[in-house]
Design a protein that fits this description.
The N and C termini lie far apart (85 Å). This protein is of the alpha/beta class. Strands 2-1-3-10-4 form a 5-stranded mixed sheet, with helices on both faces. Strands 7-6-8-5-9 form a 5-stranded mixed sheet, sandwiched between helices. It has helices at 5-32, 52-68, 83-90, 104-113, 121-124, 149-158, 173-185, 197-205, 216-224, 274-287, 291-299, 309-330; strands at residues 41-45, 72-76, 98-103, 125-134, 136-140, 164-167, 190-193, 211-215, 229-233, 262-269. Helix 2 (52-68) runs antiparallel to helix 11 (291-299), helix 4 packs across helix 12 (309-330) and helix 7 packs parallel to helix 12 (309-330). It has 2 domains: 41-133 and 261-330, D-Maltodextrin-Binding Protein, domain 2, CATH 3.40.190.150; 136-258, D-Maltodextrin-Binding Protein, domain 2. The longest helix has 28 residues, at 5-32. The radius of gyration is 26 Å and the shape is globular.
């Protein structure tokens, strides 16, 4: 077929126009999916500054900021057993710029403690990674005449209605296991809730409390100095930083209440893009290789996990029934 110069020119112009439109369309399609992160990232910690969860969050934030080239800020929103801060994350835009670093209390257990929780952790939160386990240790004031769990059980039974135990908040693991211990022994111990672990430990050191379950990191300096006595660990594994302290399970308390272990995890608002979830999970796993991060995790007294979102969800579904049973057995309801 013969094509005139004018027709050929028009065909070429039309092809160029279609090609240009295709390139533009492709560029627009790519541009519509904004690169992450496009602005500073905010990590909400639903507890006061200074605790183990806050330390872990700040360590991760520092490493993330260096690798992403964007500011990563930690926002402490303590109060109401972690509800305020966790709810703020659940209501935030699901764009990967608002994250949660919290304990299993706010991310899972609160749904069994509150009938009117403002968020549904299983529907409103996306699980990114289980950062580390967070074992707790039962510690007592030096005046308590007990050095192991059997001696302590005899002591609390003999002092019905006279003893007090502390926790870092209503519904915390320290509260639940303490309430379970009180009920199991019939000792009618008084629960004293604090706004954070530090004031709880100060009152235990001062003798206002006789015992409490505390985070390994917070209790270790006082145990090492002989200012507190460590009776036993919750969970089935000993803590690397307190290797000589036996678990309660080793000491004959095989109830699931003394075996289930809390954790520190990273979450985000439900609906966050899958590719951002994958990037975050990969980034945190990479950070876990950093000696500084490893040191901080060891200092919390826990064991690093840094698993995939799929592994986190599996662990969540496995642990949830045990926590629900503990809440029921301890007879704790907060609304």
């Amino acid at each position: 077929m013969n094509v005139s110069p004018l027709s050929r020119r028009r065909l070429l112009q039309g092809a160029a126009a279609w090609t240009g439109a295709g390139v533009l369309g492709s560029a627009q399609a790519q541009g519509s999916k904004a690169a992450w992160p496009s602005k500073p990232i905010r990590i909400i910690v639903p507890y006061n500054a200074g605790g183990s969860t806050d330390v872990v969050a700040r360590t991760l934030a520092d490493g993330m900021s260096k690798r992403l080239g964007k500011p990563v800020l930690v926002d402490n929103r303590g109060g109401a057993s972690g509800i305020l801060g966790t709810d703020a994350v659940a209501r935030a835009p699901a764009d990967g710029h608002t994250l949660l670093v919290s304990l299993s209390t706010s991310m899972m257990v609160n749904q069994f403690l509150y009938s009117k929780l403002p968020y549904n952790p299983e529907k409103d939160l996306e699980l990114i990674t289980q950062i580390a386990t967070a074992p707790i240790v039962l510690v007592v004031h030096p005046s308590v005449p007990a050095n192991n769990m059997q001696e302590l059980l005899a002591y609390v039974k003999a002092n019905q209605g006279k003893l007090s135990y502390g926790s870092w908040g209503q519904g915390s693991q320290a509260h639940l296991v303490g309430a379970y211990l009180s009920k199991m022994t019939g000792s009618d111990m008084t629960h004293v809730a604090y706004k954070g672990e530090a004031p709880m430990l100060q009152d235990l050191l001062g003798g206002q409390l006789q015992l409490c379950f505390a985070g390994v990191a917070g209790a270790k300096p006082f145990v090492d100095a002989g200012r507190l006595k460590a009776i036993g660990l919750v969970g089935r594994e000993r803590a690397p930083t307190l290797p000589k302290v036996a678990t309660l399970h080793e000491q004959g308390l095989t109830d699931s209440a003394y075996s289930v272990v809390g954790w520190i995890g990273m979450g985000a608002p439900a609906g966050i893009p899958a590719d951002v979830v994958a990037q975050l999970s990969s980034l945190v796993k990479e950070l876990a290789q950093d000696p500084k991060v490893q040191e901080q995790l060891v200092n919390t007294g826990g064991l690093a996990v840094m698993g995939t979102p799929q592994a986190f969800r599996a662990a969540y579904q496995r642990d949830a029934p045990a926590w629900k049973a503990l809440v029921a057995a301890a007879n704790v309801q907060l609304d």
